[in-house]
Design goal:
It contains 20 helices and 13 strands. With about 575 residues, it is α/β, with parallel strands linked by helices. The chain has 4 domains: about 80 residues, Arginyl tRNA synthetase N-terminal domain (Gyrase A, domain 2, 2-Layer Sandwich); about 100 residues, no CATH class; about 110 residues, HUPs (Rossmann fold, 3-Layer(aba) Sandwich); about 180 residues, Isoleucyl-tRNA Synthetase, Domain 1, CATH 1.10.730.10. The strands form 4 sheets. It has a 4-stranded antiparallel β-sheet with strand order 1-2-4-3. Helix 5 packs across helix 18 and helix 6 crosses helix 8.
């Protein structure tokens, strides 16, 4: 792997040295840099440093200009306004830096962080024996993208799919199967659609009996006790439900173009044996107390009606355990068993209060600390065109499979309209990549905490901030590279760069900084925004700078190099978001 210092860091190093010389007694000479609209650099840290040193900002900036090492990286530097520095990067530095990145095909010269940790990402949490709906989309898509970005930075991520596989409904389902054997086929004998059909049929039939037969209802409640107590026959039927549900889960996630590892599916049931000990530890430490027979944790700042404290219920008065006990046991397991340094939960924002109380309880118990942190990545709601939660015309929740199928159908229309040399099989293959990519990108290009409108017409549009726009930019570059024939992309640092080439080159160099920032802030929308701007800058470059008909063979090769570097960066960035980039569209 080739480790490449970004141009931004190179400039910072030179400015820091110059500032240190100008203010030798300053505590810090690290200027704050921001990219300007002209694709040059400005330093705004001088104003703060001058105020601290009781110096005139413009005079200090002038001193810095006189001490800055220029030539190799910095072409020009001048004082602007009250003390800003306008810095122009040398063309040679841009090309040479990109050439070094180009040589590292895998990581584009971006080094992993020196001290990575272990992050457990809790995401994609469907419920056993229930269909996945549009509400399950964001957790899966955001969690998968976060893992991609974190892994790229060097962090080790471990997935946890905390599926709903425990609770009172399973007493009803299992008791029904005991009384109606053979209703479920073995999981290895069905596909995803059949599995869900079987589960739906059994669920509806058992619910009908549960609601109409009090004797069956009582038998179902006793079956819950048998399940929680580890009765062998009960567990065997429960496992059959879980296995058949997994067949269905995998079929949906495959459509979503996501890899779900079986060993990472660790549902509520996995912590059943831990929950009594979790409750005991909390009670013995005084973190939890008994109140009206239940074991609860109180928080001074969390109040409900009549200003009464809202407790976190760890154990109910009847001895049963709820979500809090399961989540707290999961924290214990992930910290002590998986040695996690960070816990990341990608869950609906409506669960924020619950996790706030869970995390605070875990901190009081010593399971979380400054060294082991937890973060709730609360996400907003998927809305329909009317701005209300996404529903069918009949008011039903939209099935995730139906939504994905429709996205692929819409994408097929777009691909077929543009396709010139693709077979029908290739069109369908591209349609899946474009349609699923469109759904993912629409989600990821929105700040996770915000709601967003699900508009397939906009999502598969070739215009605007869509994945299709990015995919077509990538495919266009591949077409250019194919037309170039034996002429290969080659960097020529001696060439002067057009303004559009400079803007594209500087943006390409910022890829690593952007990924690290987006990963640190758990903000995939920042990477999506970077990629959209990259495609836009490439479009401007393509319109203003002839590639195959450039003025000289060296310029043709250099522009092909910029094209290929753009393609590699688009491909890598989209891959981190789990979106494919077809070679032809």
């Amino acid at each position: 792997m080739t480790s490449v210092t970004s141009l931004s860091d190179s400039v910072q190093q030179r400015l820091a040295a110059a500032l240190t010389a100008a203010l030798p007694d300053a505590d810090s000479a690290d200027p704050l840099l921001r990219r300007s609209d002209r694709a040059d650099f400005q330093a705004n840290g001088i104003l703060a440093l001058a105020k601290k040193a009781k110096a005139n900002p413009r005079e200090l900036a002038t001193q810095v200009v006189g001490r800055v090492e220029s030539g190799d990286v910095i072409k020009e530097i001048e004082v602007s306004g009250p003390g800003f520095l306008n810095i122009t990067i040398a063309d040679r530095a841009i090309t040479e830096t990109l050439a070094a990145r180009y040589a590292d095909a895998d990581r584009l010269g971006v080094p992993p962080k020196e001290k990575p940790g272990i992050t457990v990402v809790d995401y994609a949490q469907p419920n056993v024996a229930k269909e996945m709906h549009v509400g399950h989309l964001r957790s899966a898509v955001i969690g998968d993208a976060l893992r991609g970005m974190l892994d790229f930075t060097g962090e080790r991520t471990i997935g946890r799919h905390h599926i709903g596989d425990w609770g009172t409904q399973f007493g009803m389902l299992i008791q029904y199967l005991f009384e109606h054997p053979g209703e479920l086929a073995p999981a290895d004998a069905v596909d995803g659609e059949q599995a869900m059909s079987n589960l739906n049929r059994v669920y509806k039939a058992s619910r009908a009996v549960f609601d109409s037969d009090e004797e069956f209802k009582e038998r179902a409640r006793k079956r819950v006790v048998a399940l929680q107590s580890g009765d062998k026959e009960t567990l065997e039927l429960w496992q059959q439900f879980v296995d058949e549900s997994k067949v269905y889960f995998y079929s949906v996630f495959e459509k979503l173009d996501m890899e779900i590892r079986d060993e990472e599916i660790v549902g509520e049931s996995a912590y059943n044996d831990m929950m009594p000990e979790t409750a005991r530890l909390l009670e013995e430490s005084g973190v939890a107390v008994r109140s009206e027979g239940a074991l609860v944790v109180f928080f001074d700042e969390i109040r409900g009606k009549d200003d009464q404290p809202v407790p976190l219920i760890v154990q109910k008065a009847d001895g049963g355990f709820g979500y809090a006990a399961s989540d707290l046991s999961a924290i214990r397991d992930r910290v002590t068993g998986l040695h996690a340094t960070s816990l990341l939960y990608v869950v609906d924002v409506r669960q924020s209060l619950h996790f706030k109380m869970v995390f605070e309880t875990a901190r009081r118990a010593g399971w979380l600390s400054d060294e082991v942190t937890a973060h709730n990545m609360g996400y907003g709601t998927v809305l329909g065109a009317d701005g209300k939660p996404f529903k069918t015309r009949e008011g039903e929740t939209v099935k995730l499979e139906d939504l994905l199928d429709e996205a692929v159908e819409r994408a097929a229309e777009v691909v077929r309209e543009k396709a010139q040399d693709l077979s029908e099989a290739e069109i369908q293959e591209r349609a899946a990549q474009v349609g699923i990519g469109a759904v993912k990108y629409a989600d990821l290009s929105t700040s996770p905490s915000r709601d967003y409108k699900f508009d397939l017409d906009q999502m598969v549009s070739l215009n605007g901030d869509t994945s299709v726009y990015l995919q077509y930019a990538y495919a266009r570059i591949q077409s250019i590279l194919r037309k170039a024939g034996e002429t290969k992309p080659t960097a020529h640092p001696e060439l002067d760069l057009h303004e559009a080439e400079r803007a594209l080159g500087l943006h390409l160099d910022a890829f690593g900084d952007t990924v690290f920032e987006a990963a640190a802030e758990y903000a995939p929308h920042k990477l999506a925004a970077y990629l959209y701007q990259l495609a836009s800058l490439y479009t401007s470059f393509y319109d203003r700078c002839p590639v195959l008909k450039a003025d000289s063979p060296a310029q043709v090769e250099n522009r092909l190099f910029l094209c290929d570097m753009t393609a590699r960066t688009l491909h890598k960035g989209m891959a981190l978001l789990s979106i494919r980039t077809p070679e032809r569209l």
